[in-house]
Amino acid sequence: MMGWLKQLRTTFGASFLWLVCLIYFTQGFRSFVWTAVSYQLKDNLKLSPSASQFITSIAFFPWSIKPLYGILSDCFPIRGRKRVPYLTLATLLSLLPWLILGLSAFLRNTRIELMILLTVQNLGSAMADVVIDAMIAEAVRFERASFAGDLQSISWLAMAFGGICGSLLGGYALVNLQIDRIFLLFSVLPALQLFSCGLVEEGSVQGKALPDGSASNGSEMTIGSIEEEDKFSSEKSKISTLRRKKSQKNSKRAPTPINKLQAPDKTGSSLSQWYQSLKMATYTLFRAFRQPAILRPMAWFFLAHVTVPNLSTVMFYYQTEFLKLDASFLGTARVLGWLGLMIGTLTYNRYLKKMRLRYILMFTQVGVALLTVLDMVLVSRANVYFGISDKFTVLFGSALSDGINQFKFMPFLILSGQLCPPGIEGTLFALFMSINNLGTTVGSFVGAGLASVLNISSGSFDNLFLGIGIQVLCTFIPVAFLFLIPKEATGISA
After folding, report:
1. What is the protein's membrane topology class (predicted)?
2. From 9-18, 123-132, 165-174, the region with the lowest mean pLDDT
């Protein structure tokens, strides 16, 4: 293990490897602070479950437009650099909101201001997620392509370790610290990330063609419980766009001297080049996405989210207010969720990857429905009748739900990789992930609307059983649209 890390450090540099691990650890550790956000909305702002879920859904919307960050950094270098300046900006956007919320009681306890600051924070986190994957892809391409899997593995391990630590410490911190202290304590990580950005060197793109690739990640955050931001879903991919290949060919035919690039008309020509790059990237992206072979499967994954109301925030209120489960226990449940996700990934890779995706997705939807019935058992108190404690039921459901949901997310990753045409892999994959995240966000809005219609509020859970029953029935709707998935597609990459 140490020899492997030493080899990576020698190949890519200690500062770059440290930055990669730090950013992904921070992404996983976000569960530490977002647990506090959930309690801030519930206990201090006294919001109803539907209002709390609405604010959270708005706050996570920046994860649904990740391709924009990749295109922005690809096409508009800042002082000749495409990655580090944007990573620095993203880190500032993710750092400042936590400092402000930790220092200002007024902004922390005002609904609109809190929602705006949380949205800005997610904007910074999502942008950093995209930029660091682009840096990983470029580092692998320019240094050693054989290390692509190793860098991917270390980023997953860092995120998983951060998620486990954040889930364990988040509940403990809520019991022993004030929420403002938790916000300030978490800000140490993005502050350290900001300092680390200055340690990584990046060459200028001025005077040469744009590099031949970039990448965009798609996290999260599977973020489907209290901390939907846990980005169980990070997948690294590289992009080498057609416009940049053309730019390289033109550069080889007529190399431009450095002093000519510094001529007075540099600004105008650069703006024109950036505009043409942006235009070509956008056109190529949407032209590829309009193909039925790509559009139909992505439509299914989107429908699989939007047709099923997300009642995770309502269940959080029920578990904390009615069942009186404390924050430290819920943190432990999230750790089991992480472990369930890892086991689900291993199970899929070992036993299910040769199965047709239609069958996998159908059985997954059935499994999700059965686990949702477990929530009905919890709400109806049937578990108590049979002598099963609430804590065991919650722990069992948390571990299984993340594992089974991974059976749906893994085919999404595999199919996305198969569908990406050469030349725009990274940006198109980021678009796929954004569609997945947008579906999750819309599903949360639907869940908030359902809770509002059924008058489910803090301290009033009489209609929660009915709401979960509706959720169970809706889980079968995506099964009717499985014809959108390619018939012969399996979990083995083409």
Report:
1. Multi-pass membrane protein
2. 9-18
DSSP for 214-278, written as a single string: B----------STTTT---------B--HHHHHHHHHHHHSPPPHHHHTSTTHHHHHHHHHHHHH
Could you report the per-residue pLDDT of 126-160, keeping only the tens digit for each? 999 888 877 776 665 554 444 444 566 677 778 88
The one-letter amino acid at 177: L
Taking only the tens place, the pLDDT of each residue in 371-410 is 999 999 999 999 999 999 999 999 888 878 878 887 888 7
Q: Are 359 and 452 in contact (CB under 8 A)?
A: no
Cβ distance 196 to 204 under 8 Å?
A: no
Give the pLDDT band of residue 79 (cuts 50, 70, 90): confident
Angle between the N-to-C axes of helices 111-142 and 148-176, in degrees from 0 to 180, rounded to the nearest 10: 160
Determine the residue type at 132: I
State the CATH architecture for 285-493: Up-down Bundle (1.20)
Phi, psi of 460, deg, nearest 5: -130, 95
CATH topology of domain 1-200: Growth Hormone; Chain: A; (1.20.1250)
| Residues paired with residue 239 on neighbouring β-strands, in sequence order | 214
**What residues contact 371, with CB distance under 8 A and at least 6 apart?**
397, 400, 401, 404
Q: Report d(CA 227, CA 165) in Å as an integer.
A: 13
Q: With both helix axes pointing from N to C terminus, report the angle between 188-197 and 84-103 in degrees, rounded to the nearest 10.
A: 160
Q: Token pair of 386, please?
A: 């049979």
Could you tell me the two tokens for 64?
């649904």
- Domain ranges in the chain are 1-200, 285-493
- Residue 270: its pLDDT value, please? 65
> Which DSSP category does 321 fall into?
I
Helix axes 111-142, 84-103, angle to 10 degrees: 150
Of the candidates 361, 416, 408, 65, the one whose C-alpha atom is nearest the C-alpha of residue 235 is: 416
Residue whose C-alpha is closest to residue 35's, from 305, 306, 319, 233 = 319
Number of other residues whose CB lies within 10 A of the CB of residue 54: 21
Four-residue CA torsion sign, 152, 155, 159, 160: positive
Taking the CB of residue 324, how many other CB atoms lie within 10 A of it? 9
Q: What is the mean pLDDT of the chain?
A: 78
Equal fold, 1-200 vs 285-493: yes
pTM of the model: 0.75
By C-alpha distance, which of 46, 51, 197, 44 is closest to 108? 44
Q: 63 vs 67, 263, 321, 432, CA distance in Å?
A: 9, 40, 30, 12
Q: How far apart are the first and last CA of the chain?
A: 31
